[in-house]
Structure formats: C-alpha cells, structure tokens
Amino acid sequence: MSLWGTLTGKRTSAGSPAPASTSTDTSLQDASPTTSFQSTPFDPTSVQDVSSFLGGASLPDPSQLHPLAGLNQQTLDYLSLDESALSDLPGGRSALPSRGWSDDLQYGTGVTYLSALTLGGAYGMAEGLRRTPASAPPKIRLNSVLNSVTRRGPFLGNSAGVIAMVYNGINSTIGYYRGKHDSANSIMAGALSGMLFKSTRGLRPMMISGGLVAGAAGVWTVIRKTLF
Q1: What Cα–Cα distance (Å) separates residue 81 from each residue in 78, 84, 85, 86?
Q2: Which of 82, 83, 150, 220 is the most buried (most CB within 10 A)?
C-alpha cells in the first residue's frame, strides 16, 4: 500500500482488470461507417413558381363557365317581348312613349293627381292667408294656412285623380273599338267620366261636370296636337 493509500484509508487491489469501457470506445473508433450521405447541390431552375401552374392546362377555360357556353348562336332563338312594343294605333302618340292603355292610365292619372294636388295646395295657402287678419300672431296664421292647404289640396287631387282614371279607361276602350285615337274619343271620354263622377248628385250636376271635363279634354287634345 502506498503512502497516499495509508493516509486516505483507500485500498487498491493488485492486478485488477482494466475497465471494459476503454476497449469498447476503441472498437467504436476503429469501426468504419456502413452508409454514406452526399448532399445534392441546389438548382434554382427546378423550383416551380406561380406562373407554372396558372398558365398551364390544369385550370379550366373561364369562357366555358358561362351558362350559355357551347350553344350555337346561329340556331339560338331569342325571346321577342310584344309588351315592349309601342302602341301603333293612329293618334296614340302622346307626350310620353306609350305601349297601350296601361301606360296611359299610369301617366295620365299620376300627372293629373299631382297637378291638381299642387293647385289645390296653392289655393288653400292663398285662402288661409286671406282669411287670417294681418294682426294675428304668426302661429295662428301658420295654423290657418296649414288647415286650408290640407283641406283643399287632397280634395282636389283625389277628385281629379279619380276622374283621370275613369277618363283614361273609357278613352282607351273607345280607341280600341274604333281603331284610332282622335279628338272625338277624348271629348266623349271626358263627358262620360265627368257625368259618372257626379252621377249621385242629380241631372244638373252631372251635365255641368260632364261639360267641364269634356272641355278640359278638348283643351288637352289641342295642346297635344300643337306641341306633340
């Protein structure tokens, strides 16, 4: 036993075998690898970009996605809408293009109603200002004007709208059976619609209303022939 062993109390066995790890590490270092790996150099030309698949034949043709794609335009039958054709009756042309009685009914009734509503409102405003004394407060004058406007305007507008609706219906019926639109149709339709409007008031109101509407229809006929 050495001096260091005596001092530390450690014992060493003589002839002890060498550790096995040393021989194992030596055998691993001497062993040659069984496989080999070689890296391939990078080729930038082999990478696919966006144009490689957008411009190819993999995508369908956008023109083939249309619902009418593949149809023969030479044999394709188109729909012809007779309702879009303008009226061909003599004298049927007016201030606006008309396709028949439905257009005349809408245009005539709408224009007549708005015109009468405006005139009635203007008359009601003048009446309200006239009936209110000048020394009255502004609120009272405004209240009087609004009451007169709302009373006169809708009354005249509704009455004229009903007469215009009946007038256009009778005028279109007479024109259909006569095969033309002329002044006689308008005056006759005006007289009948005016008389029908006041038919519940007696004979005299009927005749007065029929004469007024027939006169208005005659004036409209002259204006239409002169301007249009």
Answers
A1: 10, 6, 8, 11
A2: 220
Q: What is the mean pLDDT of residues 182-209?
A: 90
Model pLDDT, residue 20: 47
Contact between 125 and 89 under an 8 Å Cβ cutoff? The reply is no
Decide if pLDDT at 30 tops 60. Answer: no
Could you give phi then psi for residue 2, rounded to 5 degrees?
Answer: -80, 175
Question: pLDDT digit string (tens) for 136-188?
Answer: 888 888 999 999 999 999 999 999 999 999 998 898 888 878 877 788 888 99
Rg of the chain over Cα atoms, rounded to whole angstroms, equals 52
Query: Residue 51 contacts by C-beta under 8 Å, 6 or more apart in sequence?
Result: none
Looking from the CA of 51 toward its CB, the CA atoms found within 13 Å total 0
Residue among 162, 160, 187, 189 at smallest CA distance from 173: 189
Does pLDDT of 24 surpass 70? no
